[in-house]
Structure formats: structure tokens, C-alpha cells
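Record 1 of the preview.
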Amino acid sequence: CTFLALGTHFGKVFLLDIQGNVTQKFEISSVKINQISLDESGEHVGICSEDGKVQVFGLYTREGFHENFDCPIKVVALHPQFTRSNYKQFVTGGNKLLLYERNWLNRWKTSVLHEGEGSITNIQWRANLIAWANNVGVKIYDISTKQRITNVLRDNVSLRPDMYPCSLCWKDNTTLIVGWGTSIKICVVKERNPTEMRDLPSRYVEIVSAFETEFFISGLAPLADQLVTLYFVKENSDHMDEDFRARPRLDIIQPLPEGCEEISSDALTVRNFQDNECRDYRLEHSEGESLFYIISPKDIVVAKERDQDDHIDWLLEKKKYEEALMAAEISFKNIKRHDVQKIGMAYINHLVEKGDYDNAARKCQKVLGKNMELWENEVYRFKTIGQLKAISQYLPRGDLRLRPAIYEMILHEFLKTDYEGFATLIREWPGELYNNMAIVQAVTDHLKRDPTNRTLLTTLAELYTYDQRYDRALEIYLRLRHKDVYQLIHKHNLFSSIEDKIVLLMDFDKEKAVDMLLDNEDKLSTDRVVEELADRPELLHVYLHKLFKRDHHKGQKYHERQIVLYAEYDRPNLLPFLRDSTHCPLEKALEVCQQRNFVEETVFLLSRMGNCRRALQMIMEELEDVDKAIEFAKEQDDAELWEDLISYSIDKPPFITGLLNNIGTHVDPILLIHRIKEGMEIPNLRDSLVKILQDYNLQILLREGCKKILVADSLSLLQKMHRTQMKGVRVDEENICESCHATILPSDMAKPFSVVVFHCRHMFHKECLPSSGTIPGVQFCNICSAKRRGPGSGILEMKK
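->
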């Protein structure tokens, strides 16, 4: 609704906008206007007055219905769609309920819908249903079927109907709410089952809720599934005999099947409320806008459903800023009276006043958003109160940024008081936020006073890195032995800068340094690295050892040097190196090992150079390890070595025991047993002999098992061969005689012929084969036999 229509006691009708300004004025009568009715479009109005006048006309044209009756007309109601030509209908109520309809001749036809029950005080028209109230109760008329479908009786008949009039309102097209005195009824119009109709109306009304209220009802309006009620309040006074009229109340209640629940209640201040009666108040509402109009003789009060803005106002009033900010953010799209940023600033101010600087700074990120001017103002405010550190971690650092001077101011503040905090900001803030050279100079000045401060040095290296002065950053990292030095070298390809710093890198972390050097041989050659490490042989060994582990051939020219390095710094890996290297000079290796008396390595080198007897001798004489000697003899598998081993061991009982336990599978134990002197005491001899016998039995069992397997396999293969040879061989016109080279089959298959086919698939005419060989009745393929005997033998055989 975009305007209000207001009737006065002096017969005038005013049209007001929603701010209360008069837009139009109509002189209708000289006495009280009883009722004004508007259609849904707001284009037509119906007015009735106490002197019996009824007018229905368009607000934009005065054409319409104008009539004077001889009795007061209390109410008038237009069809909701009166604007449409086929719905030109309205009803009036005085002593009768009259329906006016305009016919096709443009004349008005009148019908009496009801009479005889006193004055009609209220009419409400919704769709095809007309509800009205008289002294007896409330009735509903279905204009589509021209049937009256209900009669809801008045509950409290002791109340005068003219002093406590009935309040009616439609919630929807089928739900009517009736308020009378202190009772409320919710009525629903329903369709009757066709089987139950007989002579009854097609619709009926069911009262779904009925309850009593504390005060007298002056007006009703729906609000979703709740009700807005206007109450006339009378209270008993202790000092007066009469009831005391209090301010009217506007309540929201939740109807229940047998009662109601109060949701909210507001007492309204209107002029002269002490003199007003229940009939002096009216409640009208505008559907779709949730606007409610409370009308009294002297005032009109507009009530609106509380929205999020009202809630935010209340939260701000109570200084519940956090909740207000959250509520404002939730309703940001629909918020009308509040600026989210304004609320947030109020909250930040409140936190600062409380001294909760960290929380205030955190809220800046959410509240200030992309407003750079507000950001700078807040930074300067935090500087004034000495709390730059609090706001530093929340400053914008993405696409939207403050002026470099702001970030530099904060960095200088940290540099004065907190080196660790300064270093953290340098790590977290992108280098382009501030003037890098200015900060480098500031750090350099501080280092003059504290040249060994590790935090400042590390931060300076990071600043040099941002400024792409990698050489300076590298020098600082190496000086500090900082773990990020390797990452810096890799990331910025600084291998040319570390050629003369290899020793420093390896002193810091040998493993990482060597891995980096080997991974980047194309940038730092092996020869260059070896040259740099020449004066640090222990480091050179680490590098060459890892190089050898990766590829046995890459550093082959350094293998001779590695012999000495292994011998000096890493003997456990010397023997594996000698085994794996194919480029190591054996004479040099033998010389080094003999100088240092490395027996195991010397034994290996002697055996590799072919001097196995000398190697065995060293094992027996210097190592005195019979197990190693036996193992060595097994590896070489040389009868002379076994003889030397037996000869050396024959006068040493422990050696004899070792030989007896291990020699059985390589040398006949009898040879050893025969050479043992009589009377020699040999430890564990019985056990050794038992083991020899067990080993012999085991060998016998293995041989027998192998023999059985061999016989079974031979028989199986022979049977398979026999089955294969027994199969037929296909002979057709494409095959030829291997002797005369004519087709094997004659052109006339009716004539008798003989063909000999061998298992080797060679075919002959029988007459082309020579006579059988030395074994009567056994014929061999001449071609295959010739291959076994030699060249030309087959041809000679054919000629025979």
C-alpha cells in the first residue's frame, strides 16, 4: 500500500502518504465516516457514513456509485478485484447486508444477503468469501455458490456489541480470524465431502483454535503463523471505584490448539488513552510489507516488524559489538541503516579503550577490508599508543598494499626493540612491500654495534636474497653455516660462485655438499672439485667415495689416489673398493696394503694377481683362520691349494678339525685321514668323523635321488618322442622326392605307387632309395645320414 485513506468524524476523507502527508481530500458528508474500503489495486474506494451515504468511485475518476439511504450505513466492502469489469461488486451493512452488482447494462442490482439479527458492524471480503459480524455472531457467505456456510456465535453476550465490536481478518483465502471481547477463534473453510452434502452447503467451517485473552480485543492481523493483537486494557485501581484505562497494547501471540503463547508485548502511548474505549481503536495491516497501523481518535501509530537493523541497534546499545558485527555481516545484502564498517570501527575503538590491542588489531583485518585510508589511519593510531607490533601481523600484503613508508615504519620499530620479531616480518612479508635498500642500510648500522648477532646476519642475508645480491647472501650463510645455503645455491644457480667455497660447504655439512656437487657435475666438474679439495684429503676422500658409489667408472683416473685415501681414512671400504674397481692398479694397491700390513686386502690382491698359494699362506700363517683358508680354497677350486692347505694343517690339530668338518664335499676325506699321525690328539674328532659319514650318506642319497629323477625324465621323454613319431605325416602334391626332385605323388593316382617318408620329413620314391644299410630291414634317411658322416657322402650313397 502506497497511501492511507483516513475518515474523520466530520465527514471528510483524507489520502495520506506513508509519512503522513495529505495528498488528496474528499468532502463526503457532514457527519462521521463509518467505514472506508479499498480494492486490492488501490484504485477504487468505497465510503459509508452515519447519515446513510454510500459512495464507490475510482480515485482517478469520480464515476461510480453514489446513494443515500434512510438509515446509517455502518460498513462497506468492495470486491478485492473491483477494478476488473466482471467483479464490479460491493456490500454494505446497516440493518441489512446488501450486495450490489453492476450488470451488463451498467446498472446496479441489489440483493439482500442477510437481515433480522441487528446492526452489522464489520465486513471482510476475501476472494469468493464474505464474512460479517452482527449482534448474534459471525457468518460467512460464498458468493460463487450463493450459499451461507457458517454461523459462529458470540461467546460473551454480556458485552455490548457496540462498545466491544467484533474484529475480523482473513489470514488467507480460507482462514478467518475472529476476535470478540476477550476470545479469539481461528476458523478454516473446508470443502465438504460430496457424499455428505445432501441439502448442505458445499463448504463448511472448522474452528481449529479457540482461546481466551487477558484483555479486550480491538484489532487483529496475521503475521506468518502468528497473530498481531491490539488490546484495550482496563486495570483495577486501588484508589478509584472505576476501572483505570491503561495504554493500549500491541502483542504478538502464537496460537495453539487450546491456548496461545505470548511472543512479544509493547504498550503504546497515544493521546488521551485514558478517555478511550475499546471501540475507539482499530488495527489495519498492509499485506506484503508487514506494516501495521494502530488508529485511535487522535493518533495513527505505524508498527513494523523488527528486522536485523533493529537487532543491531540493540546490540550496539548494549555494547555487544562482536555480536553486532556478526549480525551485520550475515545480513549484509539486506542491511539498510547500518554500515558494517561503521559497526566494526566502533568495535575496534571499544577494544582499544579496553586495552585489548591484539584483538583490536585482528578485527582490523575484517573491518577495514580494502579501505587503504582507514588502514593507514589505524596504523598511525597504533603507533601513537605504542602498539605497532600488535597490528603488524594483520597488515595487507596481497594485491592491495599500503604505502611502503608504513611497512618501513613498522620494521624500524621492530629493529629497535625486537630482533626476532623483525626477522619474522622479513620472512613473512614480500620484499616489494618496502624499500629494500633502506632496510638493508638500517640492519647494517645495527650490525656495526653488534657484528656477531646471528639473527641480524641471517635477516641481512634474506634481504640480500630479495635484492638478488646472492653472492653477499651466500657469504653470510657460509659464515653462519646456515642450513638454507644449499637451497639458495640450487634456487639461484650459484654454482659459479661456490667454486672457491667448496671446502667451506663441506666443513659445514659433508653429506649435503657432496650430494649437491655430484647432482650438478655439469656445472662443477669433478676435476675442479678434486683440485679444490687437494689440500683436504679427508674431504677429497668423502667426495671420491660417493662418486665411486654412484658410478664405478666416472672417476677412474683417481682410483690410484683413492687407494691411499681409503687406506688412510676409511679402511673398512678399502676391500669393497678393490673388489669393485676395474681401473685400480693392483701393484700399487698391493704395495700400499703390504706397507700397512693389511692382510685381508693383501690376500685379495694376491689372489686377484694369480698368486693364490702365497695368499693362502698369509691366511694360514698371519690370520691363522682355518675357516677363511678353507673358504679361500673352495673359491679357487684348485687341487694344489687343497694339498698345500692339508700339508700346512697336518701338524695342527685345530686346523685338522676344521678341515674334517668342511673338506668332505671338495676332497676325499680319506686323503686327509691317512696323513694324520698316529697318536695325535685331535679335538672333536668323533664328531668330525660322524659329520664326514653323514655328508657321505647325504651325497649317496642325492646321487640316488638324481638317478631316479633322470631315469623318470628319460622314460617320459622317450614315450613323448615315440608318440610324436607315431603320428601321421601329411603328403600332398607340393612335396618332392629328395632324390629325383620330382613330385612325390604321381599325376595318376589310380596307379599303384610307393613312397617312403622319414621322421625328419624328408620324402623319397621307394625306387629312388638305395638298398638298405648294414642293418637288414632298417632304412635311414640318406640326407640326414650324410650330414653326420660329412660332405659328399650322401651323393655317393645315392650313386651306389
